[in-house]
Design a protein that fits this description.
single chain, alpha+beta, globular
Length: 380
């Protein structure tokens, strides 16, 4: 995910192929990553949508996410030499979280899910606002044998998330038994006929979940099939506001806030998504040097002690000293308290359990340093 766009760009916003379905469901829309996307739905709201994902099943339209395809002899090796994580750790039919970093600084251009189909075929899902830049950077250095195609609007993506998501998909004849971060091709019988799609065991909520990737022209058929399934699954359409509270409870980063060109994987504690021993990837030298020296700031979790809801940009203090800035902050519907991710100065030597103060519109509120996730994820 990436940050919300400004209202001034609203006239240029793209729309999901499911826009009419969202309108019919009473969606409240907001600009996001260059797209007009549902923020929440009538009759639900953030709290109900959030709870549906934690206790039942929710469906998110995340068709705004980018799609790019890298094909040709050596495509997987080419991607592996550019992006941070090591595609050599996985095989065909697996997906991997990875980062596109700036080669000079190590800052994060975007975070991406890479679908490895074969040695000559990798499908990438970047964030909406960053897709063109990721494609541009890959194309700029691709060898003649490798083709990088921007397929941003060619596919829709539906995220089916929650403890009953497998039951729902199985009732429609879709595969659900594959491992976390693996995918398979499938056919869904819809009122308009069979639809080909990819079912991947991924998500951004911490719950059991799947993401369905299908050609954009079949998006409404897939949406309708999900919402005409057995009502006992307590299925609810969910917007991006609930997606944000869910991912924050997990401590998952949002590009443009917790990751950016100014925030490296070392600072964001995303080093697990870096193949440190690989001979080449963008930003390798800068990131290895930062890791060896130790970052000047690191991403930490904060949990409210006082009644307060932290927001991005608020400053964090220890006494009279400013020690950091909130990057993501919200009210946790599960914990019923404020939670946040914050970049804190390593020189402050804060440890888990220490108390800090956050400046919330001129009022100091106590928060406790902690290590995310704030809510334990479901079994993978």
């Amino acid at each position: 995910m990436t940050e919300v766009t400004t209202d001034a760009a609203a006239t240029r916003l793209r729309r999901s192929p499911l826009h009419e379905r969202h309108t019919a469901a009473g969606a409240k829309f907001a600009p996001f990553g260059g797209w007009e996307m549902p923020l929440e739905y009538a009759g639900g709201g953030v709290l109900r949508e959030h709870t549906a994902v934690r206790t039942g099943v929710g469906v998110f339209d995340v068709s705004h996410l980018g799609k790019a395809r890298v094909t040709g002899p050596g495509a997987a090796d080419f991607v592996n030499a550019c992006l941070t994580n090591d595609l050599g750790r996985i095989g065909p039919g697996r997906a991997q979280y990875t980062l596109c970093c700036d080669d000079a600084t190590g800052g994060v251009v975007d975070d991406i899910i890479a679908y490895l189909h074969a040695d000559d075929h990798v499908f990438l899902i970047p964030n909406a606002a960053n897709t063109a830049e990721v494609v541009r950077r890959l194309r700029a250095v691709a060898p003649p044998s490798v083709t990088v195609t921007d397929e941003h609007e060619a596919y829709a993506v539906l995220a089916v998330q929650g403890p009953r998501s497998a039951e729902l998909l199985a009732s429609l004849g879709l595969p659900t038994g594959h491992d976390y971060m693996s995918f398979s091709a499938a056919t869904l019988d819809t009122a308009g006929g069979p639809v080909e799609l990819t079912v991947c065991r991924t998500g951004y909520t911490g719950e059991l979940g799947y993401e369905l990737v299908t050609p954009a022209e079949h998006a409404t058929a897939v949406w309708d099939a999900l919402f005409t399934a057995d009502a006992s699954y307590e299925l609810r359409a969910c917007g991006l506001a609930a997606r944000d509270t869910l991912r924050t409870e997990m401590g998952y980063p949002l590009h443009g806030q917790d990751l950016s060109l100014e925030i490296t994987p070392v600072q964001a504690r995303s080093g697990w998504a870096v193949g440190w021993d690989k001979p080449a990837f963008w930003g390798r030298d800068a990131l290895r040097a930062e890791k060896a020296a130790g970052p000047r700031r690191t991403l930490r979790g904060l949990e409210a002690v006082d009644r307060a809801i932290p927001r991005p940009g608020m400053t964090v203090h220890v006494g009279d000293t400013t020690v950091g800035t909130i990057t993501s902050g919200t009210f946790s519907p599960t914990l019923k308290k404020g939670i946040a991710l914050a970049l804190l100065d390593t020189a402050a030597t804060l440890t888990d359990g220490d108390l800090v103060e956050v400046d919330i519109r001129g009022r100091r509120a106590q928060m406790r340093v902690t290590r995310p996730p704030f809510v334990q994820p479901s079994v993978r």
